Amino acid sequence: MKHSRIVMVTILLIMTFSGFVQTMGSEENSEISVEVMIDFGGGLVEWAQVNLGTNNTAIKATEDACELLNFDLSATWSSWGVFVYGIGGKASPSDWSWWWQLLIWNNTQHAWESSNLGAYDLLLSDGDVIGWSPNSSRPCATPTAKYPWIGFQHDAHNLGMTKGPGPHTNNVSWNFDTGTKEMASSPVIFSGKVIANNWGGVFCLDEDGRLLWKNAEVIGGFAPAVSGKKVLVGGKDGYLYALNQSNGEFLWKTKISSNPGLSGVTSSPTIVNEKVFVGSFDFKGGTGYLFCLSEEDGNVLWKNSTFSSVYFSSPCVLEDRVYVGTMGLYNSTTLQWAPPYGLFCFDAKSGVLHWNFSVDGSVGSSPTIVNKKIVFSSKDGYLYCLNASDGNLKWKEHIGLSVSSPAIGKDAIYVGSGEMSKSGMFYCFDFDGTKLWEYEPNGAVQSSPAICGDYVYFATNVKNGTVYCLNRSSGQLVWHYRPFPEQFIISSPAIADGKMYIASDNGRLYCFFGETPTLAVNVSASPSTVNVGEDVIFVHANNENKLVITSILGNTVTLKIDSMDVTVEVSIGRTRYVDTDGDGKKDLAITVDKVNSTSQSASILLKAYTEPEDEDSNMVFYIMLIALIVVIVVIIAGIARNFKRRR
User: Fold this and answer.
1) Which pTM does this prediction carry?
2) Are 412 and 160 in contact (CB under 8 A)?
């Protein structure tokens, strides 16, 4: 009896200890946790984590996920089970050209598979992942890469917004040199891969910047799009190409522009429900067209005239309608655009023109959707908001000449303005057109912004093109970065899995990710004054001094050495990391490439101030943990001694 008491006391103590680390309960133990993906097509994806009790069916998980996401769920029940025909307001059409399919994630094959069982009959286990998507497409989203950036401005609505974290420092994780200058294209990101293109071809990299494949035959300057196993990209020769996303091999090609000139296909494709929408450019001044093609084989399903060329604008699709902007009629002699300019709305199934809205300047902006309204900018200096159904003007606000496509946040619209090589502005408006804030960068903003978390990202199209990150609520600068060699930047940022990618006309693709790197180096710099082309090397002497790059803003590098902050400034230069002494550790080098006109040398300025070190918040927890273990051991030892005495 006494022995059993000791056992019970020990068990209670262990349970108390376990409760300190993790709260436990019989009700929680009976639950299983599963993930549910809902893919609406065209890059519009939502995820929900749900806990299931005794009812562990796929339909119960779907119901709980829709409740969490505030989606309506439409389904019919019969003796055969349950049939889901509508999620979040998107229902299968009456002609059954597509329907909602139930998918299961295969952890072994790392792929989605169609379920052989209905949603009522499929029983789930802890850690399972299921998904719903139109049967006409295979999702690009996966449990490890939940929010892919599948086309220009992210998705079929051109929202320019994604979920998950975005980089909050200007740390460049890597950059890839394509070897070809002028890189206006924006990248696409999916399943740990990054695809971009320029006049040197189409490049596919892994998320660490390693080249997986290259197709040098397809050259062009406008963003690709991905769907399933295909990459769709326009070529300089006027063809739209479909490539195998695994190896870059050709699948099909379709002629889009009869007179492509030097630009080729100048609209980025948008893919929805196995249909590809893309606009065309006529170099000789003829009309352009909006095309609808079959994603499967590239056959033209319909095309309709836009009365002038589509240049820059990428179509957006809302339900059964597709919208695109027109740049005008091109004069290859004067290199100017002539009217008509405007925004067009076509029927997505038939290609019939529903309406068009005329403006007084070229529309290079891609339209985007907010609350069933269409927002776009124009070279006439205005940001427009139209009713999506009939094209009636809701409001317009003056922002200056713009080809930047608006990005839509949870409660605001973000857009840039400015003419290449000149000054520019970046704006934030609410959905009623009231300006919330503005920010003046170092030049014209012709790239389209990207939104992620608390931040909005964009770049400037000037000779010293710079990438900016602002707080999207206040418009305050968070960080900026100037790629080297300095060049124009018209590429728009793309974000996925916490990483932001953008290209520069210097021919490089940049990946911003993670905290700033830690390097072991000595404080001293040599030499302190350098000539053009020389390096200032920080060489580590031992392992006692640690240097951390805390920020790189333009040509100013802020370093942290132990508890000291040191700022290294050069007139114009670049930074790189080299192993100067062969010990396997990378040291910091700053190369001076250009100095001011009055001197041919540049001084390295070191500024230092004391900064208290951060406390290790985990230390308290570990001390408490050790103390608790000691107390338990002492109590058990005391009980054991007492037990022996009584015996």
Assistant:
1) 0.78
2) no
